[in-house]
Write a structure and sequence with these properties.
Strand order of the largest sheet: 8-9-10-11-12-13-15
Number of strands: 15
Strand content: 25-35%
Low-confidence stretches: none
CATH architecture: 4-Layer Sandwich
CATH superfamily: Ribonuclease Z/Hydroxyacylglutathione hydrolase-like
Order of helices and strands: EEEEEEEEEEEHEHEHEE
Mean pLDDT: 91
CATH class: Alpha Beta
Length: 207
């Protein structure tokens, strides 16, 4: 599996059999969406402008509503947050469980944690100034206890969204000073660390 961040809340997840693009945006906030091709596009409807599905090539299936889906071997469970608009989801591919969280409120209720279950990779915003700031993101990550965390939606080079840097979050999770990667590749579930949560910092890959 390969996970790539494209700035803002846009992420692509490439499995052995298919590619999912999450929240492709219209050009703005300092970033230009790169050319993307996918089997499915997921629009979580949590932020305006993150619904540029027509920009993704390959005639992908659009998922913009909570429910259970299976597309080209990718199994998706999209769940509505009780506190905010839109939804969050878990995705299973290549025997890996990924959770994408965005604007789920200040904390996760117990029933939400139960629905999420055991997670290998957690993708969540960390640069907000109100909801999902560094402290809230850290608390949510500690509740879920994933094997790997990938922060998104923070003040990266080129961003004009007025977000905060990821430094506070990285410090809270004990990953201050880590180098950023262009993409995160996972050979297999067994390649993930078992006794600790690893944090992966990605550099936005934009157009």
């Amino acid at each position: 599996m390969e996970i790539t961040w494209h700035g803002n809340s846009c992420v692509s997840i490439k499995s052995k059999d298919a590619t999912a693009v999450i929240n492709p945006y219209k050009d703005g906030q300092g970033f230009k969406l790169p050319e993307l091709k996918a089997n499915l596009v997921i629009v979580t409807n949590t932020q305006e402008g993150n619904d540029n599905a027509e920009a993704v090539k390959g005639e992908p299936k659009l998922i913009d509503w909570p429910g259970e889906y299976e597309v080209s071997g990718i199994v998706l469970n999209a769940m509505r947050s009780p506190e905010t608009k839109g939804f969050f989801f878990t995705l299973v591919a290549d025997n890996l469980r990924v959770c994408y969280l965005e604007n789920v409120g200040k904390k996760l209720e117990e029933d939400m944690v139960d629905k999420i279950g055991d997670i290998d990779v957690l993708i969540l915003p960390v640069g907000g100034k109100e909801e999902m700031d560094a402290k809230t993101a850290h608390e949510i990550a500690e509740t879920i206890e994933p094997r790997c965390i990938i922060p998104i939606y923070f003040d990266a080079n080129g961003s004009t969204a007025g977000l905060t840097s990821p430094d506070e979050f990285l410090k809270l999770v004990g990953a201050a000073g880590i180098a950023s990667l262009d993409k995160y590749s996972i050979a297999s579930r067994s390649s993930l660390k078992e006794d600790t949560t690893e944090c992966i910092l990605l550099e936005p890959q934009v157009g």
